[in-house]
Design brief:
Blueprint: E1 10-12, E2 15-19, E3 26-30, E4 33-39, E5 45-52, E6 60-63, E7 69-70, E8 73-79, E9 86-93, E10 96-97, E11 102-103, E12 117-119, E13 137-139, E14 162-165, H1 167-171, H2 184-189, H3 191-197, E15 201-204, E16 208-210, E17 217-218, E18 225-226, E19 234-240, H4 253-266, E20 270-275, H5 292-300, H6 324-340, E21 345-348, H7 367-374, E22 382-385, E23 405-408, H8 410-420, H9 427-434, H10 438-441, E24 451-454, H11 463-466, H12 502-520, E25 525-529, H13 558-561, H14 563-578, E26 601-604, E27 619-624, H15 629-632, E28 638-644, E29 650-653, E30 663-668, E31 691-694, E32 698-704
Parallel strand pairs: 14-15, 14-25, 15-20, 20-21, 21-22, 22-23, 23-24, 24-25
Antiparallel strand pairs: 1-2, 2-8, 3-4, 4-8, 5-6, 5-9, 7-8, 10-11, 12-13, 16-19, 17-18, 26-27, 27-28, 28-32, 29-31, 30-32
Helix pairs in contact: 8-9, 12-14
Length: 705
């Protein structure tokens, strides 16, 4: 017996049609044809526009019959299409009345918000044809990838070590030595490097389809074209960036990205995506109409009573994320990436915006954040908030977490930076940050894993620049050095920028090592920035969003010239991975609850058991009792950490261990390479078990076993 749903009921010109299914939105392969479904609350009518792939003019325009509209959804099945060579879009008819929030214009061909592949920018940096009537083109994706039984890893959050990277920057430099520089495929070639470093999670800066030519312009100094390089300006939320795929010119970016994720998972490395749901690439009133603005501007964007765009993102518009339609789109999107791409987690750019109501006021119980927290498909995904926005809403420690959300801990970054450069009055704050910020998270019963600890990220100085520049140097951006933050909390160690002075360079390297040592002994989840492990510099530019050049690319020759930094990072990461006492799920109690004779954490100064919390103190020391590791469920060594950010050496008396245990030196940033760090199991015995001199601006880590 033949299926009834494969028979057409209508025709238009040479096309056979039938009423479509309104769910799911987007274009879906069905028996004999393609189901097209799109929402618009305020449109009067809709026309499906069909192209042969890459064709300049449409091959057909098919109006949706009125009877094909169900509620606010236009849906239609079109039979006998060559779907592998098809591109499609929509024309929406409705009022053009910006003061009322409506921007309908039938001259515009609109991208499907649910498009799984987007054409038009298939090869990175290839100049587009600006006369093309349809710049960003919806295409169909085919679910024919063989995962071979691979599944997301579900590494416990407290065990993560995150490496933040830009897909193109990671392998674009000629020194990368890869076959397809700047692509998903090239990252696969560097998996042995990531494993040697010891990270088990990569966080990719935006990989959703964006237009690198958005706001492109010549560099006033060099004439070089400045691009939308970082990609924080989404064109389509469901489609991977074609220009990041070696096979993008063939439309195979979906399979290339899935192959990367599968291979990373086979090597025990998770993948977190940096996602941007706070705004889109359509900008303000003067921006292009690509998709949402022409489909239903009033639904998708937050508008003032006069019809202007609220700009809590700092980029011209703000998505109306707590409108149920937009909320469902975000949920559909993340479910798709979790289910179809096996993504392990998401980091939400300017996530405070996601908690604002349609008029911009912060919500106490934001529906979108709650929906994401309790969604059954996203149940095992890490959800990470950048808990602030460009409108001044700062929610670090108070982000609506629903027991699920983690936060980029901006207060951790600021405290570590101030302590690192020797500011007074930071000892008390350091104690909080080293414990996983219980002052921010214990009250909500969230635990140290709520804190993503970082000292540097893509946005700001690299670690090398943090110790080489007192101020930003963003002249190459063409904005008269007005862009980027002025609040860097950096210190140049006595000279602004690069120098041949061996003493300054030695101090800078020691400060970098101090920073990573602090990061790796802090409770919470450490995140390091791509290239910090080899001393990558941006020459003082703290906002390299527009540069497709060596300001952003990772120069792999640094692995040789800064081999000591790489070894130190590797040893510190190995230390963390080897010792569960550094990776607790719950906050310390500051008591002995297992009967070891020691509290889970104890605080010290230059005298054992006598911490100095005075305003002038630049010293913090603590000991972790290995009997309390993972809340006493496993046994570990004891760890003692002494941080001397004073510029003078001090004698540190160290606490005595239980009988038959001795202290071994794991890290001493004041020692000369290669003896400033030791791999787990190779640590030499400390000669004087009662104390040691610690040099100025140095960190020592001892392992008691």
């Amino acid at each position: 017996m033949q299926r009834i749903d494969i028979h057409p009921t209508h025709s238009y010109e040479n096309f056979k049609l039938r009423p479509g299914s309104p769910i799911p939105f987007g274009a879906t392969l069905v028996p004999g044809g393609v189901n097209f479904s799109i929402f618009s609350r305020h449109a009067k009518s809709c026309t499906l526009v069909l192209f042969k792939k890459h064709a300049l003019e449409p091959m057909a325009e098919i109006p949706f019959p009125e009877e094909f509209r169900i509620g606010n959804v236009f849906s239609m099945t079109v039979f006998d299409l060559d779907y592998e060579n098809l591109e499609y879009g929509y024309r929406m008819d409705g009022p053009f009345d910006p003061k009322q929030g409506h921007w309908f214009d039938t001259s515009k061909i609109l991208l499907d918000p649910y498009a799984k592949i987007i054409g038009g920018r298939d090869i990175w940096g290839e100049k587009p044809d600006w006369d093309n009537i349809y710049q960003h083109r919806s295409r169909l994706a085919f679910d024919d990838f063989d995962w071979e039984g691979e599944r997301p890893l579900q590494i416990p959050t407290e065990d993560l070590i995150i490496y933040e990277m830009h897909v193109r920057s990671f392998t674009q430099h000629p020194s990368a030595g890869v076959k397809h520089p700047g692509t998903f495929a090239a990252i696969r070639d560097k998996i042995p490097y990531l494993k040697e470093l010891g990270v088990n999670c990569i966080e990719l800066m935006p990989i959703y389809e964006f237009d690198e030519f958005e706001n492109s312009r010549p560099n006033p100094q060099t004439g070089e074209v400045l691009l939308n390089y970082w990609g924080y300006s989404t064109v389509g939320f469901f489609a991977p960036k074609a220009g990041y795929a070696a096979t993008g010119k063939y439309g195979m970016q979906v399979d290339e990205l899935k192959t990367l994720i599968k291979t990373l998972h086979q090597n025990d490395i998770e993948v977190i995506l940096d996602v941007v749901f706070n705004h889109t690439a359509e900008g303000n009133d003067y921006g292009p109409t690509i998709s949402f603005r022409g489909i239903d501007n009033k639904t998708y964007y937050m508008l003032t009573p006069e019809g202007y765009y609220f700009n809590f993102s700092g980029t011209g518009n703000t998505l109306n994320c707590n409108n149920p339609i937009v909320r469902n789109m975000v949920l559909d999107c993340l479910r798709y990436w979790a289910a179809e791409y096996h993504i392990d987690g998401f980091r939400f750019d300017l996530a405070a915006i996601l908690g604002r109501d349609p008029w911009g006021a912060p919500l106490s119980n934001p529906p979108l954040l709650e929906s994401l927290a309790f969604d059954p498909i996203l149940a095992n995904c890490k959800l990470i908030a950048e808990a602030w926005d460009a409108g001044g809403l700062y929610q670090v420690g108070s982000f609506p977490a629903f027991g699920r959300w983690l936060e980029w801990n901006g207060k951790y970054r600021d405290t570590i930076r101030k302590f690192l450069k020797g500011e007074p009055g930071m000892a008390g704050d350091m104690a909080q940050r080293l414990q996983g910020s219980p002052d921010l998270y214990a009250w909500a019963d969230r635990g140290p894993t709520a804190s993503i600890n970082f000292i540097t990220c893509h946005d700001g100085f690299t670690l090398m620049d943090l110790v080489s520049y007192n101020g930003k140097h963003n002249e190459a951006n063409g904005e008269n050095n007005n862009d980027g933050t002025n609040d860097n909390e950096s210190w140049n160690c006595g000279w602004e920028g690069q120098t041949d002075n061996p003493d300054i360079n030695a101090l800078r390297r020691r400060q970098i090592k101090n920073a990573v040592a602090m990061l790796m002994v802090s409770q919470g989840v450490p995140m390091i920035l791509m290239g910090d492990e080899v001393g990558r510099t941006q020459y003082g530019n703290n906002n390299t969003y527009c540069h497709d050049n060596e300001l952003n690319w990772l120069d792999w020759r640094l692995l040789e010239s800064h081999a000591d930094l790489f070894k130190f990072f590797k040893d510190c990461i190995a230390l963390r991975n080897a010792h569960p006492v550094l990776r607790n799920k719950y906050h310390f109690r500051n008591v002995d609850y297992v009967g070891s004779g020691y509290s889970d954490i104890t605080w010290h100064g230059t005298q054992a058991w006598n911490a100095d919390w005075s305003n002038e103190s630049r010293i913090v020391a603590f000991m972790l009792c290995g009997q309390h590791a993972k809340e006493g469920t496993v046994t570990d060594n004891y760890i003692y950490v002494a941080m001397n950010m004073h510029w003078e050496s001090h004698w540190f008396e160290i606490p005595e261990l239980p009988q038959e245990m001795q202290w071994h030196v794991c890290v001493n940033t004041g020692a000369a390479p290669p003896e400033e760090s030791w791999a787990p199991g190779t640590e030499p015995l400390l000669q004087n078990q009662h104390g040691l001199f610690i040099g100025g601006r140095s960190v020592v880590i001892l392992v008691g076993k």
